[in-house]
Structure formats: structure tokens, C-alpha cells
Design goal:
Helix content of chain A: 55-70%
CATH architecture of chain B: Orthogonal Bundle
CATH topology of chain A: ABC transporter involved in vitamin B12 uptake, BtuC
CATH architecture of chain A: Orthogonal Bundle
Number of domains of chain B: 1
Strand content of chain B: under 5%
Oligomer: heterodimer
Shape of chain A: globular
Helix content of chain B: 55-70%
Strand content of chain A: under 5%
Distance between the termini of chain A: 41 Å
Order of helices and strands of chain A: HHHHEHHHHEHHH
Number of strands of chain A: 2
Largest sheet of chain A: 2 strands, antiparallel
């Protein structure tokens, strides 16, 4: 059959890295930091995971190192955007570029190969019940993030910082500290995502192996409105598109069509959700807008720098 | 700036984000070089001689054609605070359109070359306009719509080059060679073509529009303060559409020039793998999209890209280092520069520092 348990497994496997990264992105979004460096953070995680696992022989140390390295790498965004008040979008683009260059550079200087490092003795993550432990961790992370954001005082403060830093500061909440925490957490989650990609889904490192997954995670954050459960559904959509596309490839569809499928599906989903949201908002917002408010369509948050939440 | 004394001027230049970032990039690059056991002076020397020496200048100018073209493509919307992340897709679509036109046009060769150039430009422009429409009509942010549209375009071109248009008998994913004469004339025996002049003309047109016309003023005003611009009656949606169409057209032009130059065919990946789009974006960001600065920054990055190869030959340091350098410059710049973009109610208290011409 076409829809069998194999497909479900491959959906869930494709889902894991995107889900982890997107959860990190959602935390940042909630704290009012627009993080489009997810792709670069994941790539750093991939490389660190593979190189640590290779040199120590332990995939677990690889996972740990990946989380730490990506968290350290995320400091670029934290320092640049929060402390120095630089432009988060430009920083994110630069982080992605830097990660691509740095990992390719290190691949050649450390492993002496170009393109792909692949060795049979490279230890990957163990598989328990069809999935790596990181997959189960990603599901747990959804629950934890959901509870944290909606029920816990820290999550409430984080949201407050994102929605109105000045008001939060007035109430004694340190906006910078919460933003740093969110960005560093997203670094950890992206590091885990990278480890899952490089030691779970496959056991190798190749240049730019994230192949746009970080960008898909950015879109999943928007699509899921930065709510953990919404992000899960959005990432699931992408997982289905990737797995089904891969399956269709076996049925003779050219690889290029299946490569493009996730992006087309994601774009389609964005169209539908924004159209539905517009349909639901009162008529008034569709009429001629006042010139002073260039873009706001019923979104709750207007703090992110590029207006992405609208 | 001109009124300040020379000393003050020098110190301002040093404190300018652009100079600071460039210096930081060079210094950190030197640390990397020492880390890999290479002599930084020898390595940087190899970058300069390899890119500007007699052997390298041709390659540098060829690279400059693509880098400057893409930098202009990304600078045009950036001037108004918009970021087009779909340059790759628009460029590749322009390239494959130019290849199809060049292969199947019944016109004489020289006219076909012109037609292919125009067709590539139009294809890129139309595709970028689609991304603008996604934002204007469907509410999908430009940043995301342009990026997501890029991937299907690359896949489509890749499919065409691998299956329907593939050169029979070739092991490479490439189209047939364009007919004899369907090419941009080259200077002497070099690979530098008239394409460089076309791109230079585009740069000139951008400078003129930016500094001498009402449209250019509207664009700059939108970049500096979108709310004021909207208040003053600038039609934001129309502006987005026109800027994106221009941006995509320039990207498509770069793709078409790439196909109409050596090796005179569309080879899958040959347009995207050198990373012209990202280099171009970096150059445009470095220059805050100012016309003259964009040209200078593009030249700088073309030198780096070509010189990186020479550095790899002489010092065995991987050429990827130049990509690292380039990204470091932008990391520092992004942290230092409050780039003019539209913001929400919060965060925009600092005065905007428009980048000085580099």
C-alpha cells in the first residue's frame, strides 16, 4: 500500500530536525527576536556532532557537543541583535553564510575531504523502536515548550518581553536576559536538530547538508504562529511533503519535482492560512488602510523587526 | 563630512562600521590562516596577485560581471528596506530561458543573442514580481515568499537541463551548446564579455535613478522611514512590485549573461554553485545599497573570490576561507549598523546610520 507504516516512519524521521529547529525559532519569536539563522545553527550542529562522534567514538558526546557548539554560535545573534541592537535579519543571513563557509572550511582542514565526510566507523545514534532518542526528545520538547509558554511564569515573562519589552522592564523583568535565554535555547535545539540530521537520519556530514531545512523551520514558526502545537503541525506538513515526495520518486517522478514539493506545499499552506485569517478578520481591516499603519492584518504581535508575524 | 578636519575625518572613517567590519574580517582571517599554519602575508599576497595580476584579472572581471549584477539586483529592493532572498531562482530562470531562446529562436544569431538576453531578463523579472504579489495580495512576507519560490525554479531548471533539453550523449547535466554566433562578444581572447558593460550600464542607471530622480528619492525615503514615506503618499505595494520586478530582471540578466558567455550553454548548478547571489547580497549590505558603494564592494568580493583560488594553490589553505571572511565582515557590520528597515513600534529609537560610501 502507499500509505503504510513505513511512510509514517519516514514522515516522523523527516519531521524531527525541522521540529526541533522550529521550536527554537518559536521561542525566539515569542521573545521578540526574529531568528532566521536556524539553518546556520543546524549546520554547525551537524558538523560538531559528526566531528565529535568521529574523534571520541561516542555519538552521545557528539549530541552534547552539537548542542553546546550551536548554543555558542547563537551568541552571535544574541549579542548582535539584543545587546548591540543590530539587524536580526542581516545577522541571521550572515550566520547562515558563515556556518556554510566555516563548516566547508573545517571539513577540508580537519578531515581533508571536500564535499562529504562519510566513514563506516563513524558512530551514529542508536535506534530505539524505530527512532533515535532525539526523536522522542523532540516530542517531549513540544510538550515542555507548550507548558512553559502557556502555564509557567518564565514563559509568561518571555512572552511579555516579546510583546512589550518596555512594559516588561517596568514590571522588573529583564528583557535582555530573557531574550538571551530564548536565543541560547534555540541554539541548543538547533544543535540537537543538526545532530539528529547528521547522526540519526544519515551518518555523515556533507556541505550544506541542511539543504534549506532551517528555512522551512523559519516558515513553520510563522505558519504555526509560534505556538508549539501549531509549529508541530506545520513541521508535520513539511515532513509529509518530504516523505511522500521521496516515495513518489520511487514511482518514477523525477527527483527535481520531489525536491521542490516541500517548498511548494509550504507556500501553499501559507497562502491558505493567511487567506483564512484575512477572511476571519473584520471587514474594516480590508478597507483602505490608514497610511500610518503599513502592514497589520489581525496579528497579535507587531514587534518582530521584519513584520513577519503579520 | 567634507567640512570636518582631516584628523577627525580619519578617525570617523576608522569608526565607521564598514571600515571596522572590513578590518575585523581581515584580522580574523589572518588568525584562521595562522591557525592552519599558513603565513597570512603570503596568503593575502596571493589573493591580491592572483586576482589582480596579469593571469587573474580576466577571471576577476568575469566574476565581477556576475557578482556586480547580483549585487545590483539585491541592492535595488534593499534601498527601500526590502530583502529579496530569491535571487538564485530568478537568476537560474533567466539562464534557462536565455538558453531555450538561444537554442530555438529562428532569428539570425546576433539578434537571437539580444533576444535571449531580453527573455532571460523578462523571466527573472516576472518571477520576482510573483514574490511581490505574494506579499501584496496574499500577505506572505516578501522575505519568505521570494525564498520559497526560489527552490522550485532551481528544480525546474535542473529538470529541464537533465531531461528534455539535455545534450544527447553528454554525461553532464547540460543543454546543447548555443548555435555559433549566439553569444556575447568577448574582449580579445579573454572570457570577459560585453556582459560586463551591460552590468556597468545597469549600475550607472541605478546611480542615476537613485540620486537624480523622484522615484529614487521615494525609494530611499521608504528605506529610511517607511511610515513617513507612506504618510507622504508613496504607494508601498506598487513600489514593492516595481522594485522586485527590477531586482528579478537584473538577476535574470545575470543568468542570461552567464549562459551567453563561455561555455555557451546552461549547465545545471554552474550559476548557483559559485554563490553569486549571497556574495551579491553581502556586497549590497556592506554598501547599504548605495550605488557607488555597491560597485566597490562587488569588486572587493570578486577579488576575494578569485584570489581565494590563487591562495589555495600557493598556500594550500582551502578557498572556503574567503567565504568565511565575507560572512565575518557582514556579521560585524550587522551588529554595528542599524540598517534602515521597517520596524514595529519598538526598537527603532536609535538614529539610523546610513552607511558611508565604502
Amino acid at each position: 500500500m502507499f500509505l503504510d507504516s513505513d511512510l509514517l516512519m519516514s514522515v516522523l524521521r523527516a519531521l524531527t530536525p525541522i521540529l526541533l529547529a522550529a521550536l527554537g525559532g518559536a521561542l525566539c519569536e515569542r521573545a521578540g527576536v526574529f531568528n532566521i539563522g536556524l539553518e546556520g545553527l543546524m549546520l554547525v550542529g551537524c558538523f560538531t556532532a559528526v566531528s565529535t562522534s568521529w574523534f571520541t567514538g561516542s555519538p552521545w558526546l557528539g549530541v552534547l557537543a552539537a548542542a553546546l557548539a550551536s548554543a555558542a554560535y547563537s551568541l552571535i545573534l544574541a549579542v548582535g541583535a539584543v545587546t548591540l541592537r543590530g539587524d536580526a535579519v542581516v545577522l541571521g543571513v550572515a550566520m547562515n553564510l558563515l556556518a556554510a563557509g566555516l563548516t566547508s572550511f573545517l571539513l577540508r582542514t580537519v578531515f581533508g575531504v571536500q564535499g562529504t565526510f562519510d566513514d563506516p566507523s563513524l558512530a551514529g545514534l542508536p535506534v530505539v523502536g524505530g527512532f533515535t532518542p532525539l526523536t522522542y526528545l523532540s516530542w517531549a520538547a513540544v510538550v515542555v515548550a507548550a507548558v512553559l509558554l502557556s502555564r509557567h511564569v518564565w514563559g509568561l515573562r518571555l512572552r511579555g518581553v516579546g510583546e512589550s519589552p518596555d512594559a516588561a522592564a517596568t514590571l522588573g523583568v529583564n528583557p535582555a536576559r530573557h531574550k538571551y535565554a530564548a536565543v541560547l535555547l534555540s541554539g541548543v535545539l538547533c544543535g540537537l536538530a543538526g545532530a539528529q540530521l547528521a547522526l540519526g537520519n544519515v551518518t555523515l556530514f556533507s556541505e550544506n547538508m541542511t539543504a534549506g531545512r532551517g528555512w522551512i523551520a523559519v516558515v513553520a514558526v510563522m505558519l504555526g504562529r509560534a505556538v508549539p502545537l501549531g509549529v508541530l503541525l506545520a513541521a508535520l506538513l513539511f515532513g509529509v511533503a518530504e516523505a511522500v515526495g521521496f516515495r513518489l520518486q520511487g514511482l518514477g517522478l523525477p527527483q527535481q519535482a520531489t525536491d521542490a514539493a516541500p517548498y511548494v506545499v509550504t507556500l501553499g499552506a501559507l497562502f491558505i492560512t493567511t487567506a483564512r485569517r484575512r477572511g476571519r478578520t473584520p471587514r474594516a481591516s480590508r478597507g483602505p488602510r490608514t497610511p500610518g499603519t503599513p502592514r497589520s492584518t489581525g496579528s497579535t504581535r507587531s514587534t518582530d523587526p521584519s513584520g513577519v508575524a503579520s | 563630512m567634507a567640512r570636518t578636519p582631516d584628523v577627525r575625518r580619519a578617525s570617523t572613517a576608522l569608526r565607521s562600521p564598514v571600515t571596522f567590519s572590513l578590518l575585523a574580517g581581515v584580522v580574523i582571517g589572518a588568525v584562521f590562516l595562522v591557525g592552519t599554519g599558513a603565513d597570512p602575508f603570503a596568503a593575502y599576497g596571493a589573493v591580491i596577485t592572483g586576482s589582480l595580476g596579469a593571469d587573474g584579472i580576466g577571471a576577476t572581471l568575469t566574476t565581477l560581471t556576475s557578482v556586480l549584477g547580483m549585487a545590483l539586483a539585491l541592492a535595488v529592493p534593499l534601498r527601500a528596506g526590502l530583502i529579496n532572498l530569491g535571487g538564485d531562482g530568478q537568476m537560474v530562470l533567466g539562464g534557462i530561458t536565455a538558453a531555450v531562446t538561444g537554442l530555438y529562436s529562428p532569428l539570425p544569431p546576433s539578434l537571437t543573442a539580444v533576444l535571449a538576453l531580453l527573455a532571460g531578463t523578462a523571466a527573472g523579472g516576472a518571477y520576482a514580481a510573483l514574490a511581490a504579489l505574494c506579499e501584496n495580495r496574499l500577505g506572505v512576507p516578501l522575505l519568505v515568499s521570494s525564498l520559497l519560490l526560489s527552490y522550485p525554479a532551481i528544480s525546474l531548471a535542473s529538470y529541464l537541463a537533465r531531461y528534455p533539453l539535455k545534450e544527447p550523449g553528454s554525461s553532464l547535466p547540460q543543454t546543447r551548446r548555443l548555435p555559433e554566433g549566439v553569444a556575447l562578444p568577448a574582449f580579445g581572447s579573454s572570457t570577459v564579455t560585453v556582459g560586463l558593460l551591460v552590468v556597468a550600464l545597469a549600475a550607472g542607471a541605478y546611480w542615476f535613478t537613485d540620486s537624480r530622480t523622484a522615484v529614487g528619492y521615494e525609494i530611499r525615503m521608504t528605506g529610511l522611514n517607511p511610515r513617513f514615506a507612506a504618510y507622504a503618499g508613496v504607494d508601498r505595494k506598487g513600489l514593492t512590485l516595481r522594485l522586485m520586478a527590477t531586482s528579478g530582471a537584473l538577476a535574470g540578466l545575470v543568468g542570461a549573461i552567464g549562459v551567453l558567455s563561455f561555455p555557451y550553454r546552461f549547465l545545471d548548478g554552474s550559476l548557483t554553485s559559485p554563490g553569486y547571489t549571497w556574495t551579491g547580497l553581502t556586497a549590497a549590505l556592506l554598501a547599504s545599497a548605495s550605488p557607488l558603494g555597491t560597485v566597490l564592494a562587488s569588486f572587493f568580493f570578486a577579488v576575494l573570490q578569485v584570489g581565494g583560488l590563487a591562495m589555495e594553490r600557493t598556500t594550500e589553505v582551502p578557498r572556503e576561507l574567503t567565504q568565511v571572511l565575507q560572512a565575518i565582515v557582514i556579521v560585524f557590520l550587522a551588529a554595528r549598523l542599524r540598517f534602515p528597515r521597517r520596524r514595529g513600534a519598538s526598537g527603532g529609537h536609535q538614529p539610523v546610520t546610513q552607511g558611508e560610501p565604502a
